[in-house]
Amino acid sequence: MERKDDGRLEGRTAIVTGSTYGIGEAIAKVLSSEGAISIITGRTEKEGERVAEEIKTAGGSAEYHHLNVTDEEEVAEVTRAVYEKYGRIDILVNNAGIGGPSKPTHEYTREEWERVFDVNVTGAFLCSKNVIPYMKKGGGGNIVYISSIYGIVGSQDNPAYHATKAANRIMAKTGANIYAKDKIRVNSVHPGFIWTPLVEDFLKDQSEKLGVAIEDLRSELDAAHPIGHIGEPEDIAYGVLYLVSDEAKFVTGTELIIDGGYTSR
Ligand code: NAP
Q1: How many CB atoms lie within 10 A of CB 213?
Q2: How confident is the model at residue 1 (pLDDT cuts 50, 70, 90)?
């Protein structure tokens, strides 16, 4: 994705959690194509360095930091390092997330349940908690929680995932209320199914359990979206770009659904 001149996010620093691949990678690339300095984070160094290099090759600015969002010390270290280097943190996208086991509630162990909460809820909390003081020092900022359509409607899959994504939705609304006076806008984005390693793994798991071919499951998933197919990571990234740009200066506490019509039924 080529870097544009005079981008909408010129010189702003953007931390995108879980941007080593999947939706986070696309978000980091779209933000840097509009002039942001993208801070690529995640646990897979090789992939993080790849994303940062690809952004730089396209004329943008990026650097990779190892970050496990459940490690409070590491979150504090990375946010401090970014602030000390750039003097500001303008954007945080809480994107890192896991699906967790797809099975009914009564079959979940407490450990499995807490693992999903640890990454999807506590991880997002820790990142917001550490970034907000820097945003306040800088006179404002933008936080986006990547929730899901599963934070809005129920299904027969992943009960822990549903609960965490609903938590992300309300974390954004609460943050919007608390930090409006500090000029920090907080919003959530709710993707429908997007083709990434997370969905690929989910379909593999379902295929083994149900004995149905992955291609058939993929067709079913496509048909569940009125638009006729599942989405691409960039579909979500452009929604995030809008929310963190000045064009959305009156937008806070909102939930942007990008789902090919899935929840419109
Ligand atoms: P993905 O392909 O599995 O990518 C997940 C990203 O999160 C990776 O960069 C991974 O990096 C990172 N991550 C996982 N655990 C982490 C941890 N403990 N600390 C830091 N980073 C961690 O998933 P995706 O589909 O892109 O999903 C991204 C977000 O969108 C998630 O919050 C997901 O719930 C949400 N979402 C996805 C869909 C979909 O259909 N794909 C739909 C709705 C919502 P490392 O492995 O390098 O750490």
Answers
A1: 11
A2: confident
Q: What share of the chain is helix, strand, coil (3-state, %, to 5)?
A: 55, 15, 30
Distance 20 CA to ligand 1 centre (A): 9
Q: Tell me how far apart the alpha carbons of residues 122 and 119 are, in angstroms, rounded to a whole number.
A: 6
Average pLDDT of 181-191? 99
| Same-domain status, 211 and 239 | no
23 within ligand 1 shell (Cβ under 6 A): yes
- Give the pLDDT band of residue 261 (cuts 50, 70, 90): very high
Do 19 and 105 share a domain, yes or no?
yes
Number of domains making up the chain: 2
Q: 45: domain CATH number?
A: 3.40.50.720
- Band of residue 185 on the pLDDT scale cut at 50, 70, 90: very high
Alpha-carbon span 60 to 29, nearest angstrom: 8
**Can you tell me which atom of ligand 1 is nearest the CA of 94?**
32
- Residue of minimum CA distance from atom 32 in ligand 1: 97
Instruction: Please tell me the pTM assigned to this model.
Output: 0.98
Ligand 1 and 196: CB distance under 6 A: yes
Q: Ligand 1 pocket, 32 CB below 6 A?
A: no
**Token pair 């080593």 is at which residue?**
20
Whether residue 108 lies in the annotated active site: no
Task: Say how far apart CA 9 and CA 86 lie, in whole Å.
Answer: 15
pLDDT tens-digit profile of 2-24?
A: 887 779 999 999 999 999 999 99
Based on the fold, state whether residues 179 and 137 are members of the same structural domain: yes
Report if residue 117 sits inside a domain. yes
97 lines ligand 1 (CB under 6 A): yes
Closest protein CA for atom 31 of ligand 1: 97
Answer yes or no: is the C-beta of 160 below 6 A from any ligand 1 atom: no
**Same-domain status, 149 and 28:** yes
Report yes or no on 3 lying in a domain.
no
The chain-wide mean pLDDT, for the chain, equals 97
Full residue range of the structural domain in which residue 121 is found: 13-194+232-258
